[in-house]
């Protein structure tokens, strides 16, 4: 970010037309010799150039030469002389009585050179130091562009330009003019001041942020400064009262250019520097560390800086390196506003990695979500909108990394448990993540499928997701039956609500529960105007409606109990079916052997006796130990019939209850 690489380019790069300083100086030296008759006696070497001058003009106005020329007539100025030979040439021209041409491009170098040569009022009235200070205060610091030029030229003049307060005065002046730009008392702005509210509800994009800077040229000027100067300007803006919603975007745009952009090398090379890749990483690391110190934290940063920007900085820190405490600070800031993030902002492992489950990006995301839980979860798992949003974000993230072929079921289960199940109001995204995992791992056993899918609650699935789960062959059998039962209950409830609303609409004219349009003047039928209401809320519901409401509530409780008991039965039947499958395989393998077939007990059948018992269908069967191959097949068919009848289980129960409730209503 250096503006120039040579010390004398601050004068040479001035765009203002100027005469040949070297030719003018030679003319002055010859004229002085002719007027005074004194020869040239002093030789001054500056860099690679040598100047032959007279002793009297140098000693008259410069304290430095007055002290040095007592002992010798040959001097060599040090390498750190401000401005180099070009600047000394202009100083020498002034020493011979000529006026010096000053502009914003050379005033900083001239002021520093005059200070080095001790050209103050102590040695000569109206000396160069005072003249240059007057020009800085009355001309340069009154203009935004001139102040920027001087501040940029001060980079090669440090630390002397800092000691002379040139840098400090320029920074304070720029901060003051920036505040005036924000206030804009004359209402000359065509567009509002740039803020980051537009980026808060979308994924972070470097290109979008770059386009926003174009609208405000003063921000574009500030983010072109070296970071040392930029950091001090941000501090001055805050001291002078600029609101944080205007200060923070400037920091974000600066980081977007010098940390996140892919053209960082090009920016530095355009400034006249050739740097290697390792130098780029080191410089970016230093700037990134400084940016983190400038950014607001916790509550001040919310809705001011998009959380996607913090994710971008965190991703960049993996490439350039950052101190562990700074990474922890960045992760804490992300966790404090995680519910405002987008899934597109999250850290995704790079393509081509050996294993996603062991990547640094995934470990960092786990740490961020764990930090969020420590911030927002008390003794109990509280259910809030923020927690629900975070849980849905995590499930969506899992669906994007579940395609890792090397991810073990145990690891996937640990990832699911990163966010408590109680945080999830909807299990649709969790179902998608499980489906993605099972698609990538078709060889997992039934036990592992059941373990992975045990977190899924079919009652929290949407209608579309529930239908998809029923038709998904990858899901375990127990989950499919549960989804069928939940779908049946939902369908029955929807039909019940539809029929109730239709019945109330038809009976409104006769029961008085609804206002009748046919008899608008029949007030005696309206229970809302009963004299026994004592001015309370109008009662528009009949006794039959209240009884039916109680029956519906009891029906819902019974259906819930039926769902739990059915789930338990399905789980047992599934285990018996798996054991029976193994038994059939062993039976088929042993048919070819002449030995006596070995009796095997399927899972869940060990406690059954040899006597005949009745199965759940009311049929008499013998013990599974005494069955031959054909009888075992018939037993398996009976189990399958049980599964088919489960889908009608709730419907028959509800029909019985509806008939009893109808009889109760007739008796009432």
From TrEMBL:
Q: Where is this region: Disordered?
A: 514-533, 588-615
Domain (NPH3): residue spans on this chain: 216-490
Compositionally biased tracts (Low complexity): 514-524
Per UniProt, which keywords does this protein have?
A: Ubl conjugation pathway
Instruction: Check the record and name the SUPFAM superfamilies matching this protein.
Output: POZ domain
InterPro entries, from UniProt? BTB/POZ_dom, NPH3/RPT2-like, NPH3_dom, SKP1/BTB/POZ_sf
Q: Which residue ranges does the record assign to the BTB domain?
A: 40-104
Q: Show the PROSITE patterns listed in the entry.
A: BTB, NPH3
Pfam families the UniProt entry points to: BTB, NPH3
Named in its record, the pathway it takes part in is:
Protein modification; protein ubiquitination
Instruction: Name the SMART domains on file.
Output: BTB
Q: Which family does it belong to?
A: Belongs to the NPH3 family.
Question: Can you say what this protein is called?
Answer: NPH3 domain-containing protein
| Organism encoding this protein | Hevea brasiliensis
What does UniProt list as this organism's lineage? Eukaryota, Viridiplantae, Streptophyta, Embryophyta, Tracheophyta
